[in-house]
Specification:
With 147 residues, this protein is mainly alpha-helical. It has two helices and no strands.
């Protein structure tokens, strides 16, 4: 099939003349679409920037929380050590007080025994003369009391 080139060109010109409004409308739509795409790109970039800023802030807050938890653990550990030291000191003090008290009680018990013995001797001898008190041998403080 042979096509007449002149006829085709004339036909294209007629089409171009017949549809200029549609072409201009298509150009306006294409331009508007470009502006919409550019606006969407700018808005997307702004959203990404805000998200990155928010993520950085969250990481910073997370780090602060981690540091705060670490510090809280250190404070708790130190408090437990100090409480243990105080408890140990209180135990040592109480032990010392009890040992001294045991010594005092032992002395008092010894005096009581001597008094009883002295009274028993007076009753046995039938005299009212004083019987010398024999001192008990000294015990080391903290040794248990025996019979």
């Amino acid at each position: 099939m042979v096509v007449d080139q002149g006829a085709v060109l004339e036909l294209v010109d007629q089409i171009r003349v017949a549809m200029p409004e549609e072409v201009r409308q298509a150009q306006r739509i294409t331009g508007e679409a470009g502006r919409i795409v550019e606006h969407a790109r700018e808005e997307g970039d702004a959203i990404i920037a805000r998200a990155q800023e928010q993520a950085a802030q969250m990481l910073e807050e997370r780090e602060l929380v981690r540091l705060a938890q670490q510090r809280a653990g250190e404070i708790l550990e130190q408090a437990n050590r100090e409480a243990g030291d105080v408890r140990h000191g209180a135990d040592e003090y109480a032990t010392g007080v009890l040992i001294r008290l045991e010594g005092e009680v032992t002395k008092a018990l010894t005096s009581i025994k001597h008094g009883i013995e002295m009274l028993d001797q007076r009753r046995g001898s039938g005299t009212l003369d004083a019987v010398p008190i024999q001192p008990e041998p000294e015990r080391a403080v903290g040794t248990p009391i025996s019979g």
